[in-house]
Fold:
Amino acid sequence: MSTEFRALKRYAVPQQFALLILAALTWYPFLFLLATSVKSPNQFFENYWWFTFPFDWPNYAQVWPKVSVAILNSAQYSLGTLVIVLILSLLGGYTFGRMKFPCKNAAFLCVVALLMIPGVLTLVPLFVEVKALKLLGTPWALILPFAGFEIVIGIYIMRLFFERLPGELFQAARIEGANEVQLLLFVALPLALPGLGTVAILDLLFTWNELLWPLITVGDATKMPVAVAALGFKGEHQVDYGALFAAYVSVSIPLMVIFVAVVRKFIKGIEGI
Structure:
């Protein structure tokens, strides 16, 4: 056995042990969430840190009627936002990434500068604008502002993605007589799917978890998205932690399923940026 191999083996064990500790610290909050979601109030205070038997499955039956409506509401808001964001991010990213026009870099810096504006500073003027358009209480009061926030990061990601594509592909298509629309639809779009998958995941995470803006603009409790609906199980004087955490688990499942389905494209998109 060589000296280098012994040294590598000696350092590998502490590294693996450290990784196991980090993995445990990462996964324990999820296990705690699942464990608490199947506890009765007495079980929660008897054994706070881990699973308690028997499981109190009625927690899920208790929260499902309200959670199911909230999931449908969030699906409506998220899908509406996603369509707008993907289309405009594709067009904007292709424009800044592959086309040439005067002051392109200056215009792109103006777009990226919007990322430096804290969202809380836009709440009052955005609310006044939405109210003036008579959109309060409608799905558009959430869809349009959500799309406005997410388009900026979407254009930024797609520009970086398009800039890394081989220019020879576009030159060859132009020689064959393709115009810009054909280049976008038949050359750029198929290659941009991993980047669009990344934008889609980030958009869904934002819209699904947003809490403050729906509280301001949606007055009807039956139209609330999942983030607000989950808080409804927290009483004013007493908290049923089992039901509350069961609601958290229920509203997280659709997003987890979607992420597992597109995680490969998400990773490819991150690698391509």
DSSP finds twelve helices and no strands in the chain. Residues 178 and 244 are 56 Å apart (CA to CA). The chain has two domains: 3-31, 65-272.
